Amino acid sequence: MSVSRIVVMCCIAALTAFASIAQARDGGCDGDGYCGSHQRQHFKKFGEKLGLTDAQKAQAKVIFQGNKAVVKPMVANLRTEKKNLRDLMHADTIDEAAIRAETAKIAAIQADLNVDRAKVGAQFRAILTPAQLETLKSLRQKSHKDDATPIVPAE
Question: Which of 35, 72, 113, 129 has a beta carbon 3.0–4.6 Å from 24's, enabling a disulfide?
Answer without folding.
Answer: 72
